[in-house]
Amino acid sequence: MTTASSILADDTQRYVRIADIEIDPAQLSAYRTAVTTQIEAAIRLEPGVLALYSVSDTDNPAHVTVFEIYASIEAYQAHLEAAHFKAYKGATQDMVKSLKLREAVPIVLGAKRS
Q: Helix 73-81 crosses helix 83-92 at what angle (to 10 degrees)?
């Protein structure tokens, strides 16, 4: 398990992406299953995936935000080639109505073990 101190060790080398996703409301349950499977596999199998968070808006559950932290740009590129990510993309392609990806620059990244 990653500790807060190891996440904070060198934030400037981290690669951060934010995905704003609109899901077909009729397929929201299936999307949640697919994203859960993908995130669990990525965290378990990819050492360069430091954090993946998927949340939905309270007032609009079909609006999903995914916050991603990778050890490096290379770790992100490897993630895109991972079998579980490709399976997720294939399974959700007809569920996603829109997708906007944004890069972010880490100022400070902190996490506490729960």
A: 60
pLDDT band at 9 (very low <50, low <70, confident <90, very high): low
Please, are residues 107 and 53 in contact by the beta-carbon 8 Å criterion? no
68 domain residue, yes or no: yes
Its pTM stands at: 0.86
Residue 32 domain boundaries: 11-104
If 0-12 CB within 10 Å is exposed, 13-18 middle and 19+ buried, where does residue 13 land?
exposed
Both tokens assigned to 54? 């998927």
Is 15 within 8 Å of 109 (Cβ atoms)?
A: no
